[in-house]
Amino acid sequence: MIYSLNGKVIHKEPNMVVIECGGVGYKCLTTVNTLRAVPAVGEKTFLYTYMIVRDDAIELCGFATTNELNCFKLLVSISGVGTRLAAALLSELSPEQIALAVSLGDGKTLTKANGVGNKLAQRIILELKDKIKKIGITEKMPDSVDFSSVTSILPNNFSQAIDALAVLGYTPDEVTPFMKGIDPNLPVENIIGETLKAIGKK
User: Which residues, other chains included, contact 147 with Cβ-Cβ below 8 Å and sequence gap of 6+?
Assistant: First the structure.
């Protein structure tokens, strides 16, 4: 399994980039968001990768962030969601937006992606919400979280953010320490973003 690539960009086109490492060019299927993060041809870049092995093909997918990689893995594990649909979802929406849509049961947002209809959107929500339940996400904030530095608390916003972060593979115990000090008046998506930034700085 190829975990990552660190090399020179030798070709770019919509939804695809070729990275040269050790004299070998690796073709990677990418999302629009990752492609925006990839520098110009001739410059060096780093991508996390995920290999899809099928009877008729082997595809290498590249991602600029671990959040996008983790979200992609979850999406392709769903029946009816292949690499192209998963890439389409992550081209239209960020991992945080997908996670929030799933936690809120918002199928309409998921249908913004090309090829995703109402039926498939509901299946994505159902299967990913089941994954949230399996790791013990609850409706309330854990009692152990100290938000003493926050003057006005909106528990539902934090609860929704925790549910959404679970879609990206984070447990409540992992994320709640990083939520201390975040402005509770921020939209849920911003709370998610700020939490991920704090985790990334650890």
Answer: 153, 158, 179, 180, 184
